[in-house]
Amino acid sequence: MELDEFEAQYKQAIEENLNQLQTAVLLLAQLEARITSVGQNLQNLSQAVEEYLNQQRTE
Q1: Cα(24)–Cα(34) distance, rounded to whole angstroms?
Q2: What's the angle, vertex CA 21, arms to CA 15 and CA 25, rounded to 5?
Q3: pTM of the predicted model, to two decimals?
Q4: What DSSP letter does each residue of the chain carry, written as one string?
């Protein structure tokens, strides 16, 4: 393998790995947003159920 070919393969491998890393970071950001949304939904649901149960107890 010639030096130029080795360098080209090295650069291509680095570029592919950096692209994969960037994709992983973007997916992580999406996952964090979904986790936050699910957490908020669960809090809202819990609060609604708690309010309903309290209403039923006072009737």
Answers
A1: 15
A2: 145
A3: 0.71
A4: --HHHHHHHHHHHHHHHHHHHHHHHHHHHHHHHHHHHHHHHHHHHHHHHHHHHHHHHH-
Hey, what amino acid is at 18?
Answer: L
Digit-by-digit pLDDT tens for the chain (59 residues) are 899 999 999 999 999 999 999 999 999 999 999 999 999 999 999 999 999 999 999 98
Cα–Cα distance between 17 and 13 in angstroms, integer?
6
Phi, psi at residue 25, to the nearest 5°?
Answer: -65, -40
Question: Which structure tokens are listed for 44?
Answer: 């809202």
Residue with tokens 């209403």: 55
